[in-house]
Amino acid sequence: MGNLTYEKAGVDIKGGDHWVETIKGIMKRRKSDPRVVGGIGGFSGLMRLDGDRLIAGCCDGVGTKVEIARAAGIYDGLGQDLVAMNVNDLVTGGAVPLFFLDYIACGALNEEMMSAVVTSVVEACEYCGCVLLGGETAEMPGVYGKESFDLAGFAVGTLKESEIIDGSKVKEGDVIIGLHSSGVHSNGYTLVRSALAEEIAHGLDEEGPVAGETLGQTLMKPTRLYVPQAIAAAKTGKVKAMAHITGSGLEDNINRVVPAPCVCKLSYDWPRPAVFDLIASKGVSEEEMRRVFNLGIGYVFIVSPEDEAEVVSVLESLGEKPRRVGRVVRA
Questions:
Q1: Where is the PurM-like N-terminal domain (predicted)?
Q2: Residue 194 maps to which CATH number?
Q3: Cα–Cα distance between 294 and 233 in angstroms, integer?
Q4: Which pTM does this prediction carry?
Q5: What's the chain's average pLDDT?
């Protein structure tokens, strides 16, 4: 039985959830702004511009994946990770990405590393149809070690009020359609580093669980960008909710867009990338794996059963291999 957990690795998920509730309490004590649409807790925030025009915004980073990048010497996918962590969240509510801002904090400037990251950011933005509008690079010796760095990003998009997708129409019996992930994406790396500490110490240039790839290459596969798929599916008018599978795994992220008293019920019968089997073999239980990782499904759509074929067809036309991964049930 596995006994290695995210908490033992140093991340307190319950503490993080409590902090979110604390933030909500702080916000409730402030004077509300009538331009804000919806509340805290979604994948992005919404604000009214004028009429039915809204802007959506979100902020995220790539976490301790930067430590794997540093150990492997692989930086050219981190920019895509950073963009994906934001724009994938942004489009869940129906928004179309407009622009992106990046923030790089480091102990000492490393132009080669930062050039690789920013080039990747620009390429990812172009793929998603948005622009890198600006950013900040902060050199902070004494706060960060000489080789240490951190990445954060901010995405802004637009939509009409009539285009909001918020899960409010989700009901019992609805179908959950999933798109595959490239691997770990950008969440759970503190647990990855703990589980694979011995392998990391020996170097990441040896072959990992995927034939023809070093372990470093497998762990550094960039987070997939789901923007074209989300926009195309949303245009059908048949999508009730979307969820980006990030920290806290599939169930917690999907249930963010499923109104009570319903919850998601997943099959967990899809093929998993081999990297997850490697992590589990180091003493991480199935329960903990489900609580932390995407396990091969990076983005989901919730639709009525009668609309499943249409949405699947749209996704297939974009080269995807969508699959039903579960249903919405009454808790």
A1: 45-158
A2: 3.90.650.10
A3: 21
A4: 0.94
A5: 94
Distance between CA atoms of residues 60 and 283, nearest Å: 29
Q: Is residue 286 part of a domain?
A: yes
Residue of 255, 113, 317, 87 lying closest to 186 (CA atoms): 87
190-213 tens-digit pLDDT: 999 999 999 999 889 999 999 999
Structure-block tokens of residue 54: 């809204």
Q: Is 145 exposed, middle or buried (0-12, 13-18, 19+ CB in 10 A)?
A: exposed
Stretch 289-303: mean pLDDT, rounded?
98
Number of domains the chain contains: 2
Q: What is the CATH number of the domain that holds 27?
A: 3.30.1330.10
Tokens of 97: 């990405």
Phi/psi of residue 60, each to 5°? -165, 170
**CA 21 – CA 178 distance, rounded (Å):** 29
* Both structure tokens of 287: 């329960």
Find residue 328's DSSP bridge partners: 264
Cα end-to-end distance, the chain, whole Å: 28
Among all chains, which residue has been given the structure tokens 């990770």?
A: 81
